[in-house]
Design goal:
The protein is α+β, with helices and mostly antiparallel strands. The protein folds into two domains: about 5-80, Glutaredoxin, CATH 3.40.30.10; about 90-205, Glutathione S-transferase Yfyf (Class Pi), Chain A, domain 2, CATH 1.20.1050. Helix content is about 55%, strand content about 5%. The protein has helices at about 15-25, 45, 70-80, 90-110, 110-120, 125-150, 165-180, 190-195, 200-205, and strands at about 5-10, 30-35, 55-60, 65. Helix 1 (about 15-25) runs parallel beside helix 3, helix 1 (about 15-25) runs antiparallel to helix 7 and helix 4 (about 90-110) runs parallel beside helix 7 (about 165-180).
């Protein structure tokens, strides 16, 4: 089987969550950097890979998959061990809901293209952008923290005692929150989950600072 290729950018949250899942599954990929600041995602070469011109995109060797939620679900179905979703349907729904708080309600309105639009169309400066991002991160993290507190069966991670799909989403969003100067001490349970995750090599290897294009 040919090696998969991951088109991504080191600081992209959606790329980060995909790298975490790949690392947890023990899968190796060829790292293909797409430099967002140099607008490489908007050039014809990448448009031929992903018509939406967003990262990540995963070339499986058979076809190119886009949209990180779809990629992560495909990885779970194609490579079910170790599992990132519980076996019980109700518990699976809980993990997916945690992931969706970030993937559907926080990340999209903190994404780079949205922030660039606010800057260039409405004249938002960096402090304003930080307030904007922090508002939606705070709303989502408040809910996430409450759900963690309500889960009496929870172990060290977002669900149970092993990393799940929810953690793949959470850790990149924490990274993003720090860039936007959000005070993370408000959410001690989330911080404890991050500490547990970052003890694992998979999360360490997937971190933005460890990528070949880091700092570019």
């Amino acid at each position: 089987m040919s090696t998969m290729k991951l088109y991504n950018y080191w600081r992209s949250g959606t790329s980060h969550r995909t790298r975490i899942a790949l690392e947890l599954k023990g899968l190796s990929v060829d790292y293909v950097a797409v430099h967002l600041l140099k607008q490489e995602h908007l050039q014809d070469a990448f448009k031929a890979v992903n018509p939406q011109q967003l990262v990540p995109a995963l070339d499986t060797g058979e076809e190119v998959l886009i949209q990180s939620p779809a990629i992560l679900e495909w990885l779970e179905e194609k490579y079910p061990t170790p599992a990132l979703l519980p076996q019980d349907p109700q518990q699976r729904a809980k993990v997916r809901a945690l992931a969706a708080i970030i993937g559907c309600d926080i990340h999209p309105i903190n994404n780079r293209r949205i922030l660039e639009y606010l800057r260039h169309t409405f004249g938002a400066d960096t402090p304003t952008i930080n307030v904007w991002a922090g508002t939606w991160i705070g709303a989502g993290f408040d809910a996430y923290e409450a759900l963690l507190a309500a889960d009496t069966q929870r172990g060290r991670f977002s669900h149970g005692d092993s990393p799940s799909l929810a953690d793949c989403y959470l850790i990149p969003q924490i990274e993003s929150a720090r860039r936007f100067k959000v005070d993370l001490t408000q959410w001690p349970l989330i911080m404890a989950v991050e500490q547990a995750c970052m003890q694992l090599e998979a999360f360490q290897r997937a971190a933005p600072s460890q990528q070949p294009d880091a700092g570019s």
